Amino acid sequence: MAHYILQRLLYAVFVLWGALTVIFLVVRILPGDPASMMLGAGATQTEIDALRQNLGLDASLPEQYVSFMSEAARLDFGESLWLRRPVLDSIGERIAATGRLAIAAVILAVAISFPLGIVAALRQRGPIDYAVSVLSLIGQSVPGFWLGIMLILIFARQLRWLPSAGSQTPQHLILPAITLALPLVGVLTRLVRSGLLEVMHEDYIRTARAKGIAPHAVLTRHAMRNMLIPVITVLGIQLGNLLGGAVIVETVFGWPGIGRLLVDAITKRDYPLVQAAILFITTTFVLINLIVDLSYVYLDPRIRLR
Amino acid sequence: MVGRRQHVDVHAARGRHLARRHAVHVGGCPELPATGDRSRRPARSPLGDGHRIGTPDDLTVTITCSEPLGTVPASATLLYITPAAGTNEDGFFDNPVGLGPYKFSSWERDSQIELVASDTYWGDAPAVGTLVFRDIPEVAAKATSIETGEIDFTWGLPADQLPILAENPDLVIDSTPSYAYYFNWFNSSREPFTDARVRQAMNYALDRETLANDLLQNVGVVATAPIPPTIFGWSEQTPYTYDPERAMSLLAEAGYPDGFDTHVIWVPGSGPQDRELVLSFVSNWADIGVNVESMEMEQGAWLEKLLALDWDMDFQTNTVRTGDADFTLRRLYTSSANRTGYANPELDELLLAAAAESDQDMRLELYAQANKIIWDDAVGIFPFDLQTNYVMNTKIQGFEPTPSTIPNFATVTIAE
Asked: Between chain A and chain B, how many beta carbons pairs sit less than 8 Å apart?
C-alpha cells in the first residue's frame, strides 16, 4: 500500500512538471504580454521594452524556463505582476470560497441523486423511473449560466427568498450550489440507477434474498457497495473540476472563487499567477484521483494495490 | 506649485502622517510593479518629459516642467502622495491610506470592500458612516440586487435593464454625461483609408440618430466633436448626418464606386451595447457597398494588433481622464504618437501649442481648430458620447454625479 502511494506520488510529480511546462509555454505563446497589458493602449514600444526588462521578460525562453522551474521546485512561485503580492497568498484566499461551494454542490448532488437513482432502479420502467430519467437528462443539458440567471430571477427577484449575488452569508451559498449541483445530479442519478439495475440481477443478490435478508439490507449492504466504484470515480472527477473553479457560476453569482482569479490572470497575462493557479488545480486533481483509487480497496476487497 | 492643507492627517492606519516624508508622483500612466526597480517610470507623463516634483517643506509640493505646459492644473488631478519609503512594502496595497472623507476598513477580494467615515478628514464629516462596495459582475444579479434592496446604489447598468427598474417606485434613475465616448478609428496609413473622402463616406453611412435612440437609449447620445462636451477643449462640429447617397458619391470620387472589403477590430465588453453597435455599423456600411468583417478579439491579441497599427478600423471606448482635451488629443493624434497612421503637421502644431499655452482662453481657441481638423478630415468616426446611469434607492439623497464617473458619497444622506 505504502509502496503504491509512493509510486503514485512520484508519478504525480511528473504530471505536475508536464502541466507546468505546458502552461509556461502556452501563456507565452498567447499574443500580447504582461508589459503591454499593464501599460495599456497608450504605451510606446520603448516603454513596453523597458517594463519587459524590468519584469525579467526580456530573458530568452530557456533562461526563463530554467529560473521558473528552479523556483517552483523550491515552492517559490513569485509575485503576481498585477496584484503585487505573492501568488500563493492570492490563491490561498480563494481556496476557502471555492472549497465551500464545491463541497456544498457535491453534498447536495449526492443527497438528491442517490434517492432518485435508487427509487428509479427499484421501480424500473414505472412512471417514477421515466420521470427521473427525464429530469436527470434535463439536469445534464441545462447550461450553468442560464440556470444561474433563472434561479436569481425566480428566487431573488420574484420570490425574494434568497440573496442574488455575493458570498457574505450562508444563504448566499444556496443558489450557486444548486446551479453547480444540478448537472451533477443528472450524471449521478443515471449512474446510480444503471449500476443498481446491473447489480440487482447478480447471483449473490438472489442468494442474499433467498437467505431471507430484509430488502433494505440487501440494498444497502450487498447492492449499493458494489455499484459505488463508477459513482465514486465520477464524483472524484467532478469534485476535481469544481475545485478547479467554476468560472461561469462564480461570475453569475459574484462568488470570489479560484476560477475568476484564473480567468483574470489569463486576461492580464499575469504569468506567475496563471502558472501557480494551474499548478494548484492540477495538484488537486492528482490528489483526488489518488484518493479515489485508494477508496476502491475499501469498496471492493478483491482489488489489491501493488 | 501646490500647497497642502495644514491640518490634514493621513489616516493613521499605520501611524503615517503627512508631516513625515512622503513621495509625490504622477499617475495617468500605469506604475511599475513592486518587483524590480520602482524608481524607473514610463517616460511618457502628462507633466511632460523631464519634469521634476519636489517637496521643499511639509506643506508644499512643487512641480517644475522642462518646458511651458498649460495642462498642469488638469494633470495635477493625477498626482498621488505616497509614503517616501515606497509602496512596495509588504501589505501596503492591502491597507491603503488616504486623505479623503472615507478610509479603508476591510477588503475581501473579488467580493467586497468596506470604507468607513474618517474622523480625521479636513472637511465636513460624511453623513453615511460605512460604505460597502460589492463586486457583482453579472448584469441580472446586479439589477436584481438593486431592485430587491440588497444594495442601495449602482451605476453602469446596460440600457435594456433601465425601463424595468424605472417602474420600481423605490428606485431613482439618474443619467449624467461622462468623460467617456466611442470612437471608430481608420488606419490612415492603409488603402483605402489614406483618402479622406473614403473616411468621410464611412461617416455619412452611419445612422447615428436611430442607433442612439434605439440601442443606446439613455446611455449614449450622438457625439458632436472628437471629444465629449464635458471636456475642456470641446468645440461643436458640423454633424455627419445619415446620408448614404452622399457616402456613395464620395466613394465613387475616391475611385471606389463598387465599395471595398475591410475589417474592424474590437474587444467585447469595452462599452455598452458594443456588439449590437458593431453589427449595426457593418450593416450600414454594407448599404454603401463596403463589406466590413467584424473581428471580435481577446484583449491581449487586440492590443498587440492595435499598437502595431496592424488593422483597418478599430472600434472602442475611450475616457479623457483629466477632463482636459490635451490628455486625449495630443496623446492620440500627433504624428509622433502615430496611433492611427494619420499625420498632419498643422494638427501637430496646434496640439503642441495648446499644451504649452497657459492662457486657457487661448487654449480653447487652439483646440477648436484641432477639433475641426480631426472631425472634418475624419481621422475616425466619433459616433456617441457616453452617459453614466446611476440607479439608487429613493432613500439615498443629495447624490451629485460627476463626469469622471467616480461617485462622491461624502454629500449623501440616507432618509429613514
From this structure: 158
